[in-house]
Amino acid sequence: MTPNALASPLTLPCGAVLPNRIAKAAMSEGYADAAGHATPRLEALYRRWAGSGAGMLLSGNIQVDPWHLERPLNLVVNDEGGVDALRRLAAAGTSGGMHFWAQISHSGRQVDAKINAAPLSPSDVEIEVMRGAGFDFAPPQAMTEAEIDAAIAQFAFTAKTVKAAGFTGVQLHAAHGYLIAQFLSPHSNRRTDRWGGSLENRSRFLLGALAAVREAIGPSFPMSIKLNTSDFMKGAFTNADCVALVGMLNHSTLDLLELSGGSLEQPKQVGASFKDEGQDKLPESTRKREAYFVEFAGTVKAAAEMPVMVTGGFRTVAGMVEALESGELDVVGLGRPMIADPETPRKILSGEIDKAAAPEATISLFHLMGWNNMQLERLGDGLDPDLGWDGEAATSEYKALEAANFAALLQSRAA
Fold this sequence. Notes:
This protein is α/β, with parallel strands linked by helices.
């Protein structure tokens, strides 16, 4: 196998062209300012990734609602505030002609209780997370029709604003347990009106948001979604649901479908499983592929009329090329390897390496998030990653930093 296939360009349905088949996947950065606006450190991070050699960069989730954050110091675009800083961020991420897409998100019930003591969700179903994991979620409130319409309008406003700021595409986050995924899952969506019940009804929020966003950004601007191949949890969104939903999405104007899986309740996106995986549990004998979701992605790709990107677990060039050449995907998404080595795509495409960095091989699952987030802090400060950093020590520093970020956010709101 050679990386040549990964170097081929991809023309999207809207006419935009990605210069190669490697994309930097979205990862939460957590260093906007307390008002949710972009900062010089965020610019520095994306200016560095703009020189990575990737065909496209996705931002970390940009929130459409300041009361529904995934973590403190998320970037928020919900009004005209911070537009100049957003333009500077877009300019940094698009430097050198790079594609830089804004991933826009609403956390729904998946927001810390210190940020929102009464979060909105399709239904009043609480999140079930592992005890001792450090999460504190308040019971959600079932959304009214007016609140649903308002949330769809928020997605459209944010999409229009990031386009005007200079981003070159937009992605709606419909995976990993955030609001759109909450609507899609019968586990979290217990509604009996037109927004719940059948898959057609549970998909109504996503399809409405896509239509509103397309109207806001126009026909030639790239539009993507990130979707779970499965929630890998009994009674939740299944791979069969995903395939059927893609059939509906074929009639939309979607330019790229990114596939992932899991949520905070069942973190398959980092290779972990804490609950019954239901009908999508793979027998151990078939778990031979390095990418977590590629076994399911091929089924979805066969039903999809738009290009497909798969993120989660790719490390070897041979594995990436095999998935591309076998028709299981069109774009490879890389996340954590882009933290450990920000030039990973360039090195893959030049043949300099045949395997991306895999720090998760030596770091405990319970320290991985802290380790990666502290490496991001180094990148934002213009430093190189410290691959020798002990996972437990990095996690301790991350917890202290996140506590300080919470304090800064809450102090700003109280002012």
